[in-house]
Amino acid sequence: MDRITQKTLPNGEIIRYNYNNQALLSSIPGVIDNIEYNSMNLMTKKEFANGVTTDLTYDDWTMRLKNINTPELQDMDYSFDEKGNIIGIADHIVEETQQFAYDDLDRLISAGSETYTQKFVYNPLGSILAHQNGADVILFEYGNGTGIHAPTKVGDSDLIYDANGNLIEDATFLYVYNDANHLKEVQKKSEDNRIVAEFFYDESGNRVKKIEEGIVSYYVSDDYDIEDNIETVYYFANDNRVSKKSADGQFWYLDDHLGSTSVMIDEEGELVERTLYYPFGSYREGGEAEKYTFTGKEFDSEIGLYYYGARYYNPETFVFTQADSIIPDVYNPQALNRYSYCLNNPLKYTDPSGNSPILLSMLFIQGASIECMNQYFRYGEVNNWKAVAQYGAFYTVKTSVTVGSIAAVGGATLLAAPTGVGAILTGAIVGTVVAPFSYLTIGTAESLIYGKDPHETITGNGLLNAITIEAVSGAVGGAVGGSVEGPITKAYGTEVGLIASNAASVIASTGTANSLGGVSVSQSLNNNFGDPAHNALNNLSNSLKTSWEPKKQSINNSIDAFKKKLNIK
């Protein structure tokens, strides 16, 4: 099953991994004594080897994360709006409640608590125009030959870029890149351009060495590094860093919904450091005892940047230092901004590689869709919904940056509804951004859900729901009606475009899961369009009957491309 059972590190240490009957990680001796999951395979308990236990609680219907509790160390309640945006985090340990607000494109426009207030203003292209922190206001400027998305002035600081769109100078530093476009050197302008940081990479672009203020670090693997001649071993559970051990002892990470290090504890379970963040990743408190902090990424403190793999991110300016090499969704204008961080919704999205933001609900749906198609091609029908749900959860775990954030952004909605996976798949889509290659995959899975043969089901509820999914998938931020009609019309024709537009409106007005079992949507479409809708569906059905094999190949190609983009073998 391609599960790692043990790993031998360069220092000779052997890390062992144990699994339960559902093939889920259950323990790592010396690190985690026990991991428990609910019936939906979402993690509910982590019992660490130092005696500390973390419990995670989820909403019964949406499966969104409700609470993270580690007695006397963590106690955080999460609240969401109808689109899955986090609107509140109540931290009962530090006695603070943060509140968040968003615009119509789900971009964060305000954040605050008893101790801070932040506001953000954007242009239509997803670029920040102004940021207010307390009484201080910083303005952003763009253009001057660098493209429309790269900020050229932030406050009093001028930003200069090279022809490749790489930041090469700001008020404090000069940035130098190698031939492969990787940041290799940072010079401090106020000290006669003294080199304060150097970076070295392997042939795959992975950072393998860092020299920062004379301290040399070697990155042998994700599990093992040597910093200033001190060896450190890192322990991961489902790609989530949970502990580290060095000459100073062993320590454990307690993370939040994004995988950010919230609390660090020692072998006695005592608090070492608590870290509080502003929404875009800069520190409000802490961040000194550990370098892996915001979303689990390494913070290079001497230059003020997070290392995200493909690029570096500045949490003070809220943008990456280089343009993204991947555009995750060409139909979403916000995703065309190649410098912005996570579509300007840092509480909902993560960016595991520095290449494109990942919404965890997208991963869940992709995984469930793959399992639907696997069952059809193997058995001629989809007959094991539990396996569909489980693979959706597994796929999310495998490809996301952290297990702890699986349900935080509403990605597990499709596990919750009692009416079947078909109804819930679409429920998880509303208000999210899904890359175009997912439309075909998800739509086909929906067709399979409603019958044994895609040729037969394409005319009935399967096609209706497939089109509906595409409509809602294309509705950025939950927009409905005319905003989704264009892309569908282009793909399928005017009649189907109208159906998609109406379907999205129906879903928005009647709710998600309940309206997508096929009946209410079908009735509504029939009532509104009658024979034209029926004829449009039949025409589309006839054309698809003759093109199923190319479509199947296209689906497989989409899946392969998705796996390749996320470095999945």
From TrEMBL:
<dbReference type="Pfam" id="PF25023">
    <property type="entry name" value="TEN_YD-shell"/>
</dbReference>
<protein>
    <recommendedName>
        <fullName>Teneurin-like YD-shell domain-containing protein</fullName>
    </recommendedName>
</protein>
<dbReference type="InterPro" id="IPR022385">
    <property type="entry name" value="Rhs_assc_core"/>
</dbReference>
<dbReference type="InterPro" id="IPR050708">
    <property type="entry name" value="T6SS_VgrG/RHS"/>
</dbReference>
<dbReference type="InterPro" id="IPR056823">
    <property type="entry name" value="TEN-like_YD-shell"/>
</dbReference>
<feature type="domain" description="Teneurin-like YD-shell">
    <location>
        <begin position="96"/>
        <end position="346"/>
    </location>
</feature>
<keyword id="KW-0677">Repeat</keyword>
